[in-house]
Specification:
mainly alpha; extended; 0% strand; 191 residues; single chain
Length: 191
């Protein structure tokens, strides 16, 4: 193989790499004011997280302020891909509820909301194996997977979640390496 052919192949490979990277940036990093968008949809987000952890004998995700936690994570900590996936997912949730039930998510009854959440849970399920890992690495975590993770993290880190629904010892007195568990007992908030 001569030098010209090697340089030509290297140039084509470099150009295609730059071109594909710019396409990737254009697709996944929307020039969108996420901060304003997520804050404007605070009420919708509160209703959605309340479907994931509803209020029963214990406080639900809405009462614990999980939607505020999620907005804070999205505004301050999430990557552009996560913000983009969350934005697209929330928009799709709004469109799906109007197309399927003829009204917004806010106006749907409890059964319809559960059906919408179940649809997105099934749709956003990450496949096991190498295909799922590659998809997650390239495209990012799906909307519903992000929503569930942020909801659980926010709930377990909230005051209501940590103090009322989980065992919480503000000032641990001694180290106990093995604590017996009784059936029906809540999990420890601090680990």
């Amino acid at each position: 193989m001569n030098r010209r052919k090697v340089l030509k192949i290297g140039g084509i490979a470099g150009f295609s790499g730059l071109f594909s990277f710019s396409i990737y940036k254009a697709i996944f990093e929307l020039d969108h004011p996420y901060k304003e968008y997520f804050s404007e949809h605070k009420i919708l987000l509160a209703e959605v997280v309340d479907c994931i952890i509803p209020e029963t004998q214990s406080a639900g995700a809405k009462a614990a302020g999980v939607h505020i936690f999620i907005i804070g994570i999205l505004e301050n900590c999430a990557s552009e891909v996560e913000k983009s996936n969350f934005y697209k997912g929330l928009e799709e949730l709004k469109r799906y509820s109007i197309n399927e039930y003829g009204s917004s998510f806010m106006n749907c009854n409890e059964k319809q909301r559960d059906e919408i959440i179940t649809y997105f849970e099934n749709k956003g399920e990450i496949k096991a194996g190498i295909v799922g890992k590659i998809r997650k690495k390239v495209l990012g975590e799906p909307f519903f997977s992000l929503l569930k993770r942020y909801t659980i993290d926010g709930y377990c880190n909230s005051y209501l979640g940590a103090s009322r629904n989980l065992k919480y010892d503000k000032i641990p007195h001694t180290y106990e390496p093995c604590i017996s568990y009784r059936q029906g007992e809540p999990s420890w908030a601090t680990k």
